[in-house]
Amino acid sequence: MTKMVYKLAVAMLILIAMVIVPATAGSSSNEKIPVIIGFKGKPDAALVKAHGGDIKYQYNNIPAIAVSLPEEAINVLNNNPNIAYIEEDLKVYVSKKPSVIPDDPVIPDQPPQSLPWGIDRIEADEVPSTINGSGIRVAVIDTGIDYDHPDLNVAGGKSFVRYTSDYIDDAGHGTHVAGTIAAVNNTIGVIGVAPNVSLYSLKALDSSGSGYVTDINAAIEWAINNNIDVISMSIGGGYTISQEEECQAAYDAGIVIVAAAGNEASSVSYPAALSSVIAVSATDSADDIAYFSNYGPEVELAAPGVNILSTYLGGGYGQMQGTSMATPHVSGVVALLLSSNVSSGTGVDLDGDGEWDPKEVRYRLNATADDYMIASGEEHNESYGYGIVDASAALDGLSLSDDDMGSTDSELVASDPYIDKDSQAGGKFVSATATVNVTYKGTTDPVPGANVSGKWIYDGISDSTMVKATTNYAGTAVFTSPVFTFKDDYQPTYFDFYVTSVTL
After folding, report:
1. Which residues form the Tk-SP N-propeptide domain (predicted)?
2. What mean pLDDT comes out for the span 352-373?
3. In sequence order, which ranges of 369-484 are alpha helices (DSSP H)?
4. What is the rounded CA–CA span in Å between residue 190 and residue 183?
């Protein structure tokens, strides 16, 4: 009898298992998979929805839709004659290794301005000060940018990650990249390659430094639709058709795209490996290729990428390394070129239309790169590309763009602020005023109506709020600080103000 009960129990367990297993398998088949659907003609959103699709993006510049679909629906749509491809929404990453050096990258707020070795190596400091990227819009597709950093001027941006609509950096990588491109030429921190560009923060990667091709594609679309001139991408991942199409659409729209070759000491990653993108490898201070730098026929230029000092989170500064750090050196030089007059140099305006285009930019950078390390008789190699980017050589013989002739942006000079520290309470400063005089460069002529931006500092700590004022008829702008209160016996040692930008 006992054996009979045992056999019956086993049979019941087998029967239960047969019921449970198919049910489990059936539920997993209902899970939706993120994909990108490319259409041969106009994208059909209704078709996608009819198959249970949750649309994430319907792109405007390529015939594609980013969507999550059940596996069964993907199998069915793969046989639809109007669909060109269905591909996985691959993950992309910032340069994972090597990363920050040292483990704590932040150094004290607002140190005196220094010239990072990478900026010096590519001779960006030798470019005439009138050619500084003014009027050029550079989008950094990354983890965001710390738009409160005192050494950065961020004109705008957008978040493409799911958890926030704020495009501020929450990882540090994007802020570091942005500083190499365009840290402001003031008295603090560092200076970037093209300090007068307009930076745009396109946050497509999360706080861990990862994201998806669908979001990168959407960020590229935003750049196309918002008249961006340069896209800088210090990211890497695998190949997708949609990303190739999106980058080509940007290139065809006149946008110069620069991307990191990658840090695996292997073949060049995507999007850098695409023909529409300038792939950048990394060098050290001895001009040797960094041990981690990827290589291959797609590498177009090399740039400093080891122990690079730049802006970091919280208003600080830090060193990082990787092809991620090399890329913004090239992006900055592209911005400098675009702010120059293509017609002012012999053999530069290839099509004779008086405007820079991506092909002409690449030709100029490649022709003027420092190629001493490339073997005689070779024009290009797989480690350095055409050589180390050289800003001074690229701009040699070129003048300020016609569009900027007579512009006051690069000709305005702000005096050191005069701080009135007489406003006290109990021996402690509670507020102050800063007076800034604006003149034309090389003169004492006042500039009325100039827009002056800046931030307050007390005891080396920057207030996060950017303040603005307009100069009066005498070229003077006056700023009044917020009211600060200091607890107990704390006495601030100094109260200061610094100017971040002056424009008309």
Report:
1. 28-69
2. 94
3. 391-395
4. 6
